[in-house]
Design a protein that fits this description.
The complex is a heterotrimer of chains A (230), B (280) and C (259). Chain A is elongated. Chain A contains 7 helices and no strands. Chain A is mainly alpha-helical and 230 residues long. Chain A has one domain (2-228): Phosphate transport system protein phou homolog 2, domain 2 (Methane Monooxygenase Hydroxylase, Chain G, domain 1), CATH 1.20.58. With 280 residues, chain B is mainly α. Chain B contains 11 helices and 2 strands. Chain B has helices at residues 2-35, 41-45, 58-89, 94-107, 111-125, 132-156, 160-168, 173-202, 205-208, 230-239, 248-279; strands spanning 48-49, 54-55. A two-stranded antiparallel ribbon of chain B has the order 1-2. With 259 residues, chain C is α/β, with parallel strands linked by helices. In chain C, 37% of the residues lie in helices and 25% in strands. In chain C, the strands form 2 sheets. Chain C has a 6-stranded mixed β-sheet with strand order 6-7-8-3-9-10, with helices on both faces. Chain C has a 4-stranded antiparallel β-sheet with strand order 2-1-4-5, covered by helices on one side. In chain C, strand 4 (68-76) and strand 5 form a beta hairpin. The longest helix of chain C has 14 residues, at 125-138. Chain C is globular and about 55 Å long. The chains are: A mainly alpha (230), B mainly alpha (280), C alpha/beta (259).
Chain lengths: 230, 280, 259
């Protein structure tokens, strides 16, 4: 009897932790997407709002941490509960980092301010869209225990990596043509690099989700298309 | 309302306890009051004289002690052994069930029947004659059911944990019984012995036919001598004496000594029991 | 008995197709697993799942239950303890046991510990003194009781009594130590003392412990077995069982979804 009612509270606490992590996911996804949008459209206001939102993001990350700690202290979770709590703590760190990347991109957007872009941004927004899909897939996999959709994230990461290489290559040729583009090209390369890293963190999250629900340690490389590796 | 019943119950049980205490005090007071005048060293250490109208109670006093010792020597080993059998060895079978029921039934048999049984078995059939031995063995039979039941309960009260621990250490059954079960049950068994002694010391009917003497001048020297006993002595003085009225103080004095003897033996038992318990 | 190298490499307790019946009830169902030497193996599972019954198979304490019958084999150091002609008394010297409730005998502390050695005929006072001291030291109780060895063992606190029982069990120098929920009657501090002790003991004995406390199993054991309705559902290293159990029933049990 007591075992059942204890489990009830425990399940409610787990649901609360899950809800917080998904909210954190949405916040960091927003940060990146909005920053890239600000960059593309030269909207400094939007970029500033990303900077302002970072405190909330950090605060939520800390709250998730604290809640997980007290869950451990309270229930000493084992099995799937244990995997869920430990994974959640890791995923929160990954998401917070993605949020930070959003801040970095927003800073780049502010720096560029209203300077004309050396080229219309096509691939960078595309990277951000893929990242957004990766995060969406990872978090919905986390939410509904559907680790099949988490595996899709791994192939998406390949696409982001490919795009990053393409952007870098393109910017490099543009700098070769005209050296005064160097500063802006550097900035944009940095953005592309940042998005690629964010993709790695999203991949981490997908790996965590698979471990959490299956107990098997998943490596993205097991699912990636081998010919994209170099 | 519930409180009222609670109070009432408390009162009722206090009342019964008090009534019992008062009864005991009354009996003791009555006996002491009537018998005290007769008590003296001479009364205890001199044999009866002048057709038992004068002198002391030395012969029946020693006789009662002898009967207690010999009957206990017979009943304790057999009783404890049987109790041990029932609690440690007997399985739940029809045979043990019948055996146990018979022993219970035996406890309810009137003591005079034991007397007649002792007469035919020990005095006549086994040829012990009317003797201390026959009387003691008859008394032993009488107290045996009590002894068996008491020791069986005592053994059963020993926690199974002790036995398990002993077996788990590689003890055999007999080692376990000897080193753990018997010592743990000892204090309860002593209580059984005390109760048996009380019963044996006060019985008259079983010994009339088997070995109690109306009068012997000397203390019994061997198991085959007849023996005087305090309860029978009182019975004789008060029903068949040469001068019943004149010997009233003697009768009450003898009863007082008998009561004192039983209480004395009991307190020795209680003392032994507390010492045993304290050692644990 | 001489032990060769290969004997020492073998698991100390091997259970092979073990069935236990109480009358017509099949209490244990075809158990198969090994406990390696010098390890702590914990048995978890809901009440009445057979874990205590299994423990009592290892020192044949089930022999006392009328109608109990065993099929299959239990090998301790390669020797089948259910083979005909096995000396059960000798077996119980090799396989010590500590019970759920601390149950020191109503004797002095000294006599409690000396009980086992005395059974085997040790009479020499010096040998006994030495055994009592080393056993009490082994049970981490010596310092607390060395000045009152002749006082009753039942006068100690619950936790001390249980350590006295452990000292009593190791005084016969067993190879395997069985513990049937040894801390379930103790307060948390005494419990952690005993747990600490168990971790120390495994360097000298193979320990098999039944516990209802999963955290305890997680803390002290190297291997964990999950029993359910007389079956061994899952057996593996403790970290595997408590982090990534393979069987759904194990998962449900350790996360408290039933029990």
């Amino acid at each position: 009897m007591t075992a059942i009612s204890i489990r009830k509270q425990q399940d409610a606490d787990l649901v609360e932790i899950k809800r917080m992590l998904i909210r954190l996911g949405k916040m960091s996804e927003n940060a990146v997407v909005r920053a890239v949008w600000a960059l593309k459209n030269g909207d400094v206001e939007a970029a500033r709002s990303v900077l302002d939102g970072d405190d909330d993001l950090d605060e939520l990350t800390e709250r998730i941490d604290g809640t997980c700690m007290s869950f451990n202290a309270r229930y000493q979770p084992l099995g799937q509960d244990l995997r869920m709590i430990v994974s959640t703590m890791h995923m929160a760190v990954d998401l917070e980092r993605i949020g930070d990347y959003g801040v970095n991109i927003a800073k780049a957007a502010i720096e560029l301010e209203k300077k004309p872009l050396i080229k219309p941004l096509i691939d960078i927004p595309r990277m951000s869209a893929i990242l957004s899909e990766m995060l969406g897939k990872s978090l919905s996999a986390f939410d509904v225990e559907d680790f099949e959709s988490a595996k899709i994230v791994f192939t998406l990461d390949d696409q982001i990596d490919a795009l990053e290489k393409q952007v870098v290559r393109e910017l490099f040729t543009m700098v070769m043509e005209r050296v005064d583009r160097l500063e802006q090209a550097f900035l944009l390369m940095g953005v592309a690099r940042t998005l690629e890293r964010a993709g790695d963190h999203a991949t981490n999250i997908a790996e965590r989700v698979i471990y959490m629900y299956t107990g098997k340690i998943a490596k993205a490389s097991d699912y990636k298309n081998p010919k994209n590796d170099d | 309302m519930r409180k009222f019943f609670d109070k009432a119950a408390t009162l009722v049980f206090w009342g019964t306890a008090l009534a019992l205490g008062a009864l005991l005090a009354g009996v003791l007071g009555f006996v002491a009051n009537r018998g005290w005048s007769a008590i003296s060293w001479e009364f205890i250490f001199e044999p009866p004289r002048d057709g038992m109208t004068a002198g002391g109670i030395w012969t029946p006093f020693v006789g009662t002690l002898e009967l207690i010792v010999v009957s206990m020597a017979a009943t304790v080993p057999v009783g404890v052994g049987t109790g041990l059998y029932f609690s440690e060895y007997a399985t739940d079978s029809f045979f043990t069930h019948v055996l146990r029921q018979s022993i219970r039934a035996l406890a309810g048999v009137p003591s005079v029947v034991f007397g007649l049984f002792g007469l035919s078995l020990f005095v006549i059939f086994l040829g012990f004659g009317s003797s201390m031995l026959s009387a003691s063995l008859t008394l032993a039979c009488l107290s045996l059911p009590l002894m068996v039941t008491a020791s069986e309960q005592a053994f059963r009260a020993v926690p199974q944990d002790y036995r398990d621990a002993s077996y788990a250490l590689g003890a055999t059954k007999w080692q376990t019984i000897r080193k753990v079960v018997l010592p743990s049950a000892a204090s309860t068994i002593i209580t059984g012995v005390i109760l048996s002694i009380g019963r044996v010391a006060g019985e008259t009917a079983p010994i009339i036919f088997t070995g109690a003497a109306f009068y012997t001048p000397d203390v019994a020297q061997s198991l085959f001598d007849e023996v005087m006993a305090l309860p029978y002595h009182v019975y004789v003085l008060s029903t068949a004496g040469t001068n019943i009225e004149a010997t009233r103080p003697l009768q009450y004095g003898a009863i007082l000594v008998l009561v004192g003897l039983v209480l004395g033996i009991s307190s020795i038992g209680v003392w032994m029991r507390t010492r045993l318990t304290r050692e644990k | 008995m001489d032990k060769t190298e290969s004997d020492l490499d073998l698991p100390q307790v091997r259970t092979q197709n073990l069935d236990l019946y109480y009358g017509a009830d099949r209490v244990l169902r075809s158990l198969n697993f090994d406990i390696p030497r010098g390890c702590v193996a914990a048995f978890i599972g809901p009440s009445g799942c057979g874990k205590s019954s299994y423990l009592r198979c290892l020192n044949r304490m089930n022999d006392f239950i009328s109608g109990a019958r065993v099929e299959g084999r239990v090998l301790i150091d390669g020797e089948d303890i259910y083979a005909s002609g096995v000396d059960v008394i000798a077996l119980r010297r090799r396989v010590g046991m500590v019970f759920q409730k601390p149950n020191p005998f109503p004797m002095s502390i000294y006599e409690n510990v000396a009980y086992g050695p005395r059974l085997f005929g040790v009479k020499d006072r010096e040998t006994l003194d030495e055994t009592v001291r080393s056993s009490l030291e082994g049970a981490a109780l010596w310092n607390e009781v060395k000045d009152k060895l002749n006082t009753p063992g039942t006068g100690l606190s619950g936790g001390q009594q249980q350590r006295l029982c452990i000292a009593r069990a190791i005084a016969t120098e067993p190879e395997v130590l069985l513990m049937d929920e040894p801390t379930s009657a103790l307060d948390p501090l005494s419990t952690s003392r005993i747990e600490e002790l168990i971790r120390d003991l495994k360097s000298r004995f193979t320990v098999a412990i039944v516990t209802h406390n999963m955290q305890q199993a997680a803390r002290i054991s190297d291997y964990t077995a999950f029993f359910l309705l007389g079956e061994l559902v899952e057996y593996g290293t403790t970290s595997q069982i408590f982090t990534v159990p393979v069987d759904k029933r194990t998962e449900d049990y350790i996360t408290g979804r039933f029990g």
